[in-house]
Design a protein that fits this description.
Elements lengths: L9 H9 L2 H20 L6 E5 L5 H8 L3 E6 L2 H18 L5 E5 L7 H4 L2 E7 L8 H9 L2 E12 L1 H10 L3 H5 L18 H10 L2 E9 L16 H11 L11 E8 L1
Parallel strand pairs: 1-2, 1-4, 2-3, 4-5
Antiparallel strand pairs: 5-7, 6-7
Helix pairs in contact: 2-10
Length: about 260
């Protein structure tokens, strides 16, 4: 089985992920969590790896803060979008960003060639990997002893629940399998406890946990007429870490550290 390369869908992917309301919710929750992670690592420039980071949404934000960032992706088209956005920023602000690009699958990353990192991001990648456990396990070896691993993955149980409340009972009964895969539908969604087991085997513990889109995807209509989008963001941030609602997140975000 082949891991997903988004070259043919690069522009659509870049637009859909963070250029939509659901993308803004995702960005708000994950960025809140990452700012917590940065406080754990001290007030200093950090060496950061964004593994499978696409066009580098968070890579760019972190580089603008003065951190040294390496963006790795299998898609040359996604990296081209990143380079174009960074070039525009540098021209507009007359400020160079310390960001390095690696065009390769994340399985090619290794300590001998790339060294260790204070913080590694791996967001919305695991659910596209044919062997997520093996790939992520190797990736964690690139984290420095007191460094952090930011892992966000597509939540299979939330995927099931969403389809249940949508009345897609035949789809659920078929084990969430369809004859024809939609381009941006993850091929290998994961269970939360499955990932917790991996982290335990890797001697890592979570220092922060959030559900991403614990409300948005379950709204009866896209946006209630009597509410504002800012209210939705506030509620997502408020309930994303509540133990009753975290497992409903379409994605789950863990920030992990070596024990």
């Amino acid at each position: 089985m082949q891991d997903k390369n988004f070259d043919p869908l690069a522009k659509k992917f870049a637009k859909n992920i963070y250029g939509t309301p659901k993308g803004e919710v995702r960005a708000a929750v994950v960025w809140r969590d990452l700012n917590l992670a940065l406080t754990h690592l001290g007030d200093k420039p950090l060496r950061i790896l964004d593994a499978g980071g696409g066009f580098g949404f968070f890579s760019q934000k972190l580089a603008k803060m003065g951190h040294q960032v390496t963006l790795c992706d299998i898609s040359s088209e996604m990296l081209a979008i990143a380079k174009s956005q960074i070039k525009d920023y540098e021209h507009q602000h007359q400020k160079m960003l310390d960001i390095n690009f690696i065009h390769a699958p994340i399985q090619a990353l290794n300590v001998a060639e790339h060294g260790h990192f204070d913080l590694i991001l791996c967001h919305a990648v695991a659910e596209w990997l044919s062997d997520a456990e093996q790939t992520l396990g190797v990736l964690t070896t690139l984290v420095k002893p007191r460094g952090l691993f930011s892992l966000m993955f597509y939540n299979k149980e939330a995927m099931r629940f969403f389809n249940l409340v949508s009345g897609n009972f035949d789809y659920v009964a078929a084990g969430l399998k369809v004859k024809k895969k939609v381009g941006l539908t993850p091929t290998h969604p994961l269970y939360i406890e499955q990932v917790r087991g991996w982290l335990d085997n890797w001697n890592m513990t979570t220092i922060a946990e959030s559900g991403v889109r614990v409300i948005h995807d379950y709204l009866k209509q896209q946006q209630p007429a009597n509410s504002s989008f800012n209210q939705l963001i506030e509620m997502e941030l408020c309930y994303s870490q509540h133990p009753a609602y975290l497992p409903l997140g379409r994605y789950v975000h863990f920030i992990c550290q070596w024990r």
